[in-house]
Amino acid sequence: MQNVYPYTKYRYRVEIEGIDVAGFSEVSGFDANIDVVEYREGNMLPPTPIKLPGLRKYGNITLKWGLTASMALYEWMAPSLEANVERKTITIILQDEDNADVASWQVVNAWVVKYTAPDFNATASEVAIESLEIAHEGMVRSM
Fold first, then answer.
1. How far apart, in Å, are the Cα atoms of 10 and each of 6, 111, 133, 135, 142?
2. Residue 27 lies in a domain
3. How confident is the model over 61-80, as pLDDT tens digits?
4. Which end of the chain, N or C, is less packed with Cβ atoms under 10 Å?
């Protein structure tokens, strides 16, 4: 019998529709859940509520990357401050040890809800990190 090992989480790439950017140091927070709606009428037996599927909700995604001269992601966010939201499709792709694509999630109607500039500390030996928080309206795993 051959051992099958799970994929590691440190090999991935992110594609954002229409934006050519470098890599991200962290992608976090994407999840999906369905609200549960409980309902019961007074004469129902047994005396427990039935459970119905409610609204589907998707968690916001946070992208973090080391600050470079590129302004592409900031320029995507900036119009949102003037209520001019630009929605894009984001694809997050997991890769194996040979850099082959093994799983991907497509995030639809994504837009920036928060931008965080790096903090600065003259005594730290760290990379300056920018981040975006992205809201979206759905995700689909395609492989």
1. 12, 24, 20, 23, 19
2. yes
3. 999 999 999 899 999 999 98
4. N
